[in-house]
Amino acid sequence: MSDPFNTSFEPPVNKLPPVVIILFVIMAGIELALTLGSAGFVGGPTAIGWRLQLVRDWGFSGDIFDAMLAQGYWSWENLARLVTYQFIHLSFTHALIAIVLMLALGKMAAEVMGQFAMLALFLLSGIGGALAYALLLNDPVWLVGAYPSVYGLIGGYSFLLWRKLSASGGQQLQAFSLIAMLMGLQLVWSVFTYVGYGWVAELAGFICGFGISFLCAPGEWGRILAKLRQR
């Protein structure tokens, strides 16, 4: 029975790891500024073009990457786009969905794998998604948004579920039901409207996240070393 005289406060939402809060502040802060600017509340008349300018300055372009690859000249400013594009979104709703998914999946990944591992999983999956977008496609459309990174977190979640099912003797293919459902929804949606090729980056982000989890998940390094010693 609960103590009626207990005055300690229990937050309705579990405490978020600091790394997740930092990512939230960056993503939400950028979107808040862009949304207020487009509505005319801040920045004056020129603020309406902030979003487009930010996409051009810090979004990821497959054409720019292809040009660097062809010329063999790798500028730090353009390489930074592999990371910065993950924090720029096309609209408030575009950002909101990504932020909500990042909070839920990022909290899980940080608590199970650790905060540094969660950050690596998020950023490296986004980088992997952008590289796949540039190398596999010839699409002039700019890539922006945290979705490849979020799909990397889904890859981490799928890995943990896959490992749990393996240990319990369950059907390991069940671990991929979430990504299968998401890709299926995109396929269905593409029947009714043009969805572009962002799904290539998202699927690549998932694959990267699943693969990186072999190094980030608790106990995996020990298992890898044990197998190497057996050889």
TrEMBL record:
Localization of this protein: Membrane
Domain Peptidase S54 rhomboid as annotated: residue spans: 78-217
Chief location category: membrane
Pfam families per the UniProt record, alphabetical: Rhomboid
Membrane topology: Multi-pass membrane protein
GO biological process, one term: proteolysis
SUPFAM superfamilies: Rhomboid-like (SSF144091)
Superkingdom of the organism of origin: Bacteria
GO cellular component, one term: membrane
Keywords for this protein: Hydrolase, Membrane, Protease, Transmembrane, Transmembrane helix
A GO term for molecular function: serine-type endopeptidase activity
Transmembrane segments: 20-42, 82-104, 116-136, 142-163, 175-197, 203-221
PANTHER family associated with the record: PEPTIDASE S54 RHOMBOID DOMAIN-CONTAINING PROTEIN (PTHR43066:SF11), RHOMBOID-RELATED PROTEIN (PTHR43066)
Name used for this protein in its record: Membrane associated rhomboid family serine protease
Source organism of the structure: Sulfitobacter undariae
